[in-house]
Amino acid sequence: MTVESIPLRPLGRDALAVRRTRVVLETVAGTAVAAGVAIALWTWTDLPIPIWSPFVLVVVAAAFAWWWVGVDHSRWAWRLTSDQFEVRRGVLVRRVHLVPRSRIQNVTTTAGPLQRRFGVLTLTVHTAGARTPNVSVEDLDAGHAEAIRRRLGLT
Amino acid sequence: MTTAPPEEGWQRLHPATIIKELGALAWALVAAIIFDFDEPDLPWTDAGPEAVIAVGVFGFATLRYLFTAYRITDQSLELRRGVLVKSFQSMPRDRIQSVGTHTGLIGRFVGVTTIVVSAADTEDIQLSFVSEEAAAGLRRILEQRRAEASPEMEGERRPLASLDSGRLLTFGLTETGLVPAVLVLVASIVVVFAFGWIFAPLSVGWVIVWPVLRTFSLVGFGSWIQGDRVLVQAGLLSRRRSESPLGRIQAVQVSRPPLRRLIGMETVSIVTGDIGSSSESAQIAGTIAPLETIGTWRSLCETLVGRVDVAETSLEPSSRHTIRRMITRGSVILALPVAGLAVTMSRLGWPLWALGIVAAISLTILVLYARARWRVLGWSVDDRHLLVRRGVMLRRLIVVPVHKVQDVTIRKTLFQRRLGIATVEVDTAGTMLSGRVMAIDLETERAADLAERLTAVAARVALPDGV
Predict the structure, then answer these.
(1) Cβ-nearest to B411 among A93, A101, A135
(2) Nearest residue, CB atoms, B435 vs list A93, A102, A131
(3) Which of A1, A93, A135 sits opposite B413 (nearest CB)?
(4) Stretch B338-358: mean pLDDT, rounded?
(5) By Cβ atoms counted within 10 A, which residue in B23, B336, B417, B458 is the most buried?
């Protein structure tokens, strides 16, 4: 049994910022769709549905997503110990992934435009295990990701 | 850009390959015959454009044959092919998971065979056709490196399991798929007599095909250990032979379908890490003992993966909370059909107490099932092996050498958290087992201990060459 004194690290504030920005962008897109639906309802149907109802749905969904993103963000944590990489995540279904360092075959990082703007990226760790990708951490601070790659000796 | 490999040692496939290539191009001939291109103004069409196309197709098939070559270097098996689009495939020899041969009807007639070489995480290399002598030579060469490493082990062939006709029949009759299939067929024959609809058996007859085919694929089954390889051979019309290095075995799986369990028998299979396993190679390469007395798995397992100290009799049970979880989950699943039944019964004017009886029977079955499931679930671990058991109807026992563990996940759903239990999922390179090696519903601390222990051992054991 390994006794680890290395604490679990949560995702940074930038991760929360990038996730909430995504919610805002999706809300804008949702509002556009809602406007289309509202116009369609108003023009072609006699349904007794108030014209503002699609917008209310978008606002409720956005508020829920804003809150959910915060809860989900608080559940993410990771640590790299001397012999394993550990990731914890999940709100309803909680998962703890344990990957022995000697089993890591490949580490991949990807960053979309929004992630690059906030200085975060997605780090994926592959083993030879049949379930792929084996573990990934979304919106991890780029500095931390670089440090993980260096410590795993893969750069 | 990689440098072009040196041009020596390349070998062509057997000329019978042209027949196979012609088969692949047959659509062009069929199209020529269907569209009938005769053009009276053009003198050369008198001979019939079909003939021209046939010559073209034959020429292209020959070219494809001429442009396909393979070779074995010290490090790898290489295959190059393609007339217009070139492809080059290379497979490191020390990564080879299994070498299989497959001889179809034409192959047996002409004396040629197909070789399928599989490795983890890469596409299979298929050599069809090569002559039978070349196939035997190839297999020897591909395994030579290992034989050189342990020459004293090479040569002697120790039988592992076989299947005579009586046991084959027993295997077929105890296949899980067969009983429902026979019941469906009997029901359809009843329909013939009751309603005179004679097509009923024809329309449902296909359900019996799969279990019968699976049984037939095991005619003449035999498995052996030779050196550090396990050999499996089976098949009546098309004969298959496969070899897997023992070091590549990711897990051993023991399955006991209900009927087979009733007569005290089990089936033992190995799981290797090849990703290109077709259904046939998965069945044949995997099964190493189709029908053995319950408990034989242990000695087979010891032959394959070394001394096994974990035992089925001393399995750690899952938490009793798993019964509650199963009943809750089952009730949620049953709620919808019962509600639907209630609506239907009230429409038909049936009394409500009948529904009460249906609900009570369903709940009783659910409770009995949940308790039986708890009794079956179990796990055991030491520094060498993890053993898990599950399945009320189709009982499965999986033995995973701990050094083959790639990563471990502890999963807790909302309800599991409330009950203080968790499931430990173990991932290996064995594709067929993906998501199936699980110790279900352990107390949270024990789950954490198990996961820690597995990863600690896996981290300590250096990754062997290959997977």
Answers:
(1) A93
(2) A131
(3) A93
(4) 85
(5) B458
Contact partners, residue B74, CB within 8 Å, separation at least 6: B93
Cross-chain CB nearest to A128 (options B120, B453, B454):
B120
Query: With 50 as the cut, is the pLDDT of residue B415 above it?
Result: yes
pLDDT at B45 over 70: no
Reference B263, options B293, B290, B288; nearest CA is: B293
Residue B407 CA, chain-centre distance (Å), reads: 22
> How much is the pLDDT for B449?
95
Could you tell me the pLDDT band of residue B4, with boundaries at 50, 70 and 90? very low
Report H helices in chain A: 13-44, 53-75, 113-118, 142-151
Query: 0.80 cut: is pTM over it?
Result: no
The residue-averaged pLDDT of A67-88 equals 93
Cβ neighbours of B413 in A, within 8 Å: 92-93
Residue A1 near residue B453, CB atoms below 8 Å: yes
Q: What sign for the dihedral angle of Cα A142, A145, A151, B1?
A: negative
Q: Which residues of A touch B427 (CB under 8 A)?
A: 127, 129-131, 134
Q: What pLDDT shows up at residue B396? A: 92
Paired strand residues for A136: A124
- CA-based nearest residue to B334, from B374, B361, B297: B361
Burial of B161 (C-beta count, 10 Å sphere; 0-12/13-18/19+): buried
Instruction: Please name the residue ranges forming H helices in B112-177.
Output: 132-149, 165-173
Residue B455 phi/psi, 5-degree rounding, is: -70, -35
Side chain identity, residue B155: G
pLDDT 10s digits, A142-151: 999 988 888 8
Backbone angles phi, psi at B443, to 5 degrees: -60, 145
- Record the tokens describing residue B323, joined without a space: 């019964």
> Shortest Cα distance from A101 to chain B (angstroms)?
6
CB contact under 8 A, A130 and B433: yes
Mean pLDDT, all residues of chain B: 82
Nearest alpha-carbon partner for A73 in A126, A125, A21, A131: A21
Categorise residue B26: left if φ over 0, alpha if ψ from -120 to 50, beta otherwise: alpha
Contact flag A2-B456 (C-beta cutoff 8 Å): yes
| R_g (Cα) of chain B, nearest Å | 28
Average pLDDT estimate for B237-252: 82
Taking an 8 Å Cβ-Cβ cutoff, which residues of chain A contact chain B?
Answer: 1-2, 83-84, 92-103, 127-131, 134-135
What average pLDDT does this structure show over B440-445?
Answer: 95
Distance spanning both ends of chain A, measured CA to CA:
30
Taking each helix axis from N to C end, the angle separating B165-173 and B209-216, rounded to the nearest 10 degrees, works out to 150
More confident position, B144 or B178: B178
Coil vs helix vs strand at B14: coil
The CA distance from B163 to B213, in Å, is: 16
The answer to whether residue B259 scores a pLDDT higher than 80 is yes
Q: What is the rounded CA–CA span in Å between residue B386 and residue B309?
A: 10
pLDDT band at A28 (very low <50, low <70, confident <90, very high): very high
Measured between CA atoms, the residue of chain A closest to residue B274 is A130
Query: What percent of chain B is predicted at pLDDT more than 90?
Result: 30
Contact B413 A92 (CB under 8 A): yes
